[in-house]
């Protein structure tokens, strides 16, 4: 067990991989490592090149037997490489969710997805520490993937994550992990070297310890397969590509900060890359859920504006009477819209609104004002109004005044006396 506390370990990993997300990887390095751990050239050419950065130790999508319509969860999704490959297999009806602790990684993955026209709820990236409760509904996932990430969790996090994986998997759901496991108990000079920990070696545990964690979470008869990969490929590729930090490697400038006993060590002496398979029993109880995310808005930026001005139903009614062509009213409700709506309002469901910001602006740029509303205008309405306000600010675009209907449709209906009338 390392001498560092859990908070320090988690924050160190977050900072290190946030740095990778900002700087990216040398393309030659990323391609060499990716192909060495099982990705084909065709696979790499089918996804955004910025999504693979040489951070994995395997290719879980090859053996996950993903099927059209399935829900897939990737733990520690990085730039999105395994999510994008999974999305190709599960099709438009499936849902692929990637979780990552790094704000910068999530931002990078979302931008990669945007370039390929992949948006929530089909493809989602969410910021989340794997040491916390996952923002995923119970019994909602067909297959959980992870690629060289579990070893980065402190021991308490390792204990926790397998219980969470068991919770979110549907009965009969599959677990396919690629991870670094130690061949024997690691000595203190490796275990307590933070550079080795961040590089996926220092936090590695042995096969029997890994299996005990799976068993205690409810998984039975798990299978471990040694990939027999040469872990030193990371060091050789990093030296050639000047990669600052990767799974199982440290770039030259970082390696100098490690102890003299670990800088030149043979990684294969201490650890190996494994693929781990397991399955949640089919007789597990619980109601199956079709939606993976507990909160749909987790898949979108959280920094939406809070300075959008409210407008009362009386004020909106006056605007519509005086100059209806100058104001556009936007209903962002979903299925609950069946109870009535403001006459003449445009329907843009909140769950997909962020995906359509550019198109939305193209349609309403000439309006004097756009007024957003939902049921009570305390959640979806303000969120969508804020996203549009942020869009205008971020792109330095002159646009309509953005407003929120105070009290939402419920107040409008009470004060108008006719749910469909303006």
Automatic annotation (TrEMBL):
Its EC number is 2.1.1.137. One of its GO terms (molecular function) is arsenite methyltransferase activity. GO terms for biological process: methylation. SMART domains: RHOD. It comes from the Eukaryota. It catalyses: arsenic triglutathione + 2 [thioredoxin]-dithiol + 2 S-adenosyl-L-methionine + H2O = dimethylarsinous acid + 2 [thioredoxin]-disulfide + 3 glutathione + 2 S-adenosyl-L-homocysteine + 2 H(+); arsenic triglutathione + 3 [thioredoxin]-dithiol + 3 S-adenosyl-L-methionine = trimethylarsine + 3 [thioredoxin]-disulfide + 3 glutathione + 3 S-adenosyl-L-homocysteine + 3 H(+); arsenic triglutathione + [thioredoxin]-dithiol + S-adenosyl-L-methionine + 2 H2O = methylarsonous acid + [thioredoxin]-disulfide + 3 glutathione + S-adenosyl-L-homocysteine + H(+). Keywords: Methyltransferase, S-adenosyl-L-methionine, Transferase. Pfam families: Methyltransf_31, Rhodanese. SUPFAM superfamilies: Rhodanese/Cell cycle control phosphatase (SSF52821), S-adenosyl-L-methionine-dependent methyltransferases (SSF53335). InterPro entries: Arsenite_MeTrfase-like (IPR026669), Methyltranfer_dom (IPR025714), Rhodanese-like_dom (IPR001763), Rhodanese-like_dom_sf (IPR036873), SAM-dependent_MTases_sf (IPR029063). The keyword S-adenosyl-L-methionine applies. Residues 323-421 form the Rhodanese domain. Belongs to the methyltransferase superfamily. Arsenite methyltransferase family. This is Arsenite methyltransferase. It comes from Mycena maculata.
């Amino acid at each position: 067990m390392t001498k560092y506390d859990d908070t320090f370990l988690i924050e160190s990993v977050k900072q290190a991989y946030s740095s990778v997300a900002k700087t990216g990887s040398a393309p030659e390095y990323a391609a060499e490592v990716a192909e060495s751990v099982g990705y084909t050239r065709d696979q790499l050419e089918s996804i955004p090149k910025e999504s693979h950065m040489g951070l994995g130790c395997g290719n879980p999508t090859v053996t996950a037997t993903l099927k059209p319509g399935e829900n897939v969860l990737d733990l520690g999704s990085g730039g999105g490489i395994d999510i994008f490959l999974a999305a190709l297999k599960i099709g438009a009806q499936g849902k692929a969710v990637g979780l990552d602790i790094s704000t910068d990684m999530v931002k990078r993955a979302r931008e990669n997805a945007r370039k390929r026209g992949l948006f929530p709820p089909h493809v989602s990236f969410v910021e989340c520490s794997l040491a916390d409760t996952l923002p995923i509904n119970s019994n909602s996932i067909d297959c959980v993937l992870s690629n060289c990430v579990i070893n980065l969790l402190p021991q308490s996090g390792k204990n926790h994550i397998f219980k969470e994986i068991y919770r979110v998997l549907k009965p009969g759901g599959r677990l396919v992990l690629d991870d670094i496991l130690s061949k024997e108990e690691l000595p203190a000079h490796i275990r307590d070297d933070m550079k080795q920990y961040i590089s996926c070696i220092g936090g590695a545990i042995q096969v029997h310890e890994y299996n005990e964690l799976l068993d205690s979470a409810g998984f039975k008869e798990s299978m471990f397969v040694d990939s027999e990969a040469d872990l030193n490929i990371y060091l050789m590729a990093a030296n050639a590509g000047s990669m600052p930090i990767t799974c199982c490697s440290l770039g030259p400038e970082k390696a100098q900060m490690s102890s003299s006993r670990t800088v030149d060590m043979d990684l294969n002496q201490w650890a190996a890359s494994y693929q781990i398979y397991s399955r949640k029993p089919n007789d597990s109880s619980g109601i199956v859920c079709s939606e993976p995310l507990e909160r749909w808005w987790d898949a979108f930026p959280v920094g939406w504006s809070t300075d959008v001005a409210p407008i009362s139903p009386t004020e909106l009614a006056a605007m519509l009477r005086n100059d209806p062509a100058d104001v556009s009213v936007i209903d962002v409700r979903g299925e609950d819209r069946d109870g009535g709506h403001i006459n003449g309002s445009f329907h843009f469901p909140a769950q997909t609104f962020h995906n359509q910001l550019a198109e939305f602006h193209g349609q309403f740029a000439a309006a004097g004002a756009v007024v957003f509303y939902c049921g009570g205008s305390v959640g979806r309405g303000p969120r969508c109004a804020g996203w549009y306000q942020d869009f205008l600010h971020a792109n330095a675009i002159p646009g309509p005044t953005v407003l929120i209907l105070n009290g939402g449709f419920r107040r409008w209906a009470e004060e108008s006396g006719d749910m469909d009338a303006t």
